[in-house]
Design a protein that fits this description.
By secondary structure, the chain is α+β, with helices and mostly antiparallel strands. The longest helix has 26 residues.
Amino acid sequence: MKEKFYQYIQNLQDTITSKLEAIDGKASFQQDLWERAEGGGGRTRVIENGNVFEKGGVNISAVHGPLAPAMQKYFNMNDCDFFACGLSLVLHPQNPFVPTVHANWRYFEMYNKKGEVIDNWFGGGQDLTPYYLFEEDAKHFHQVCKIACNKHDAAFYPDFKQKCDNYFWNAHRNEARGIGGLFFDYCKAENGMNMEDWYNFVTEVGNSFLEAYVPIVEKRKDIPFSDENRNWQEIRRGRYVEFNLVHDKGTLFGLKTNGRIESILMSLPPHVQWVYDHHPEKGSKEEKLVNALKQPRKWV
């Protein structure tokens, strides 16, 4: 399974980066191959200062070796080894009317000292973080997610949407990071699903990503914007940074397993502001977004 999924994410990385370069029309992804001293490595691809994308990364990695003591404690496991591979992407557009997007699809195995697999699971998801709320965009993104889920189990979309709303919640701000999407983790061989079933589901979601995001980009990327729109985008990006550094489990795992810091922090935007006690003007489009983030909504 690990070889099969690693091959899949390599191909998916190629598909996604090619499409995004075509949309941008100016910048191209710069590739960085890296190795991890404890075992494994990855293929980082970053795009910067484009016509459409100010900064973005579409990264794959496959790492293995002894599980760090901090992570053994986290998983409540004794001395063991692990393998983890996945694709992680974050795109920060230039235009404030184009949303930031994040997605991740991953596979994890744990082994005893005999090399036997003692646990394995899939995880992942995709979620949208707009700076200005276009309800039709939110509905489109969620509809694509729902269609992908329904091909496998009608219960998946409401369950994984709820998990996404719960996970991407900035508890210290009492607001959502964005308008959600899907989030699933610890998808194991149980409850009528074997690992092949989960592979088919996770790859279905991965294959749906471009359909979920690209139409929104194409619809919004040429909307004229002002300096005030950019300021608001940068202020809201601050909340994105806060989530990634305070709450995100992927960041935590990377830091505690001696992950590659440039790849881990690739998700951070290049220009961001923290304005003291900032509140948008009442009745404004900016306030509309903030109000929408106070309580997760049913989009489809």
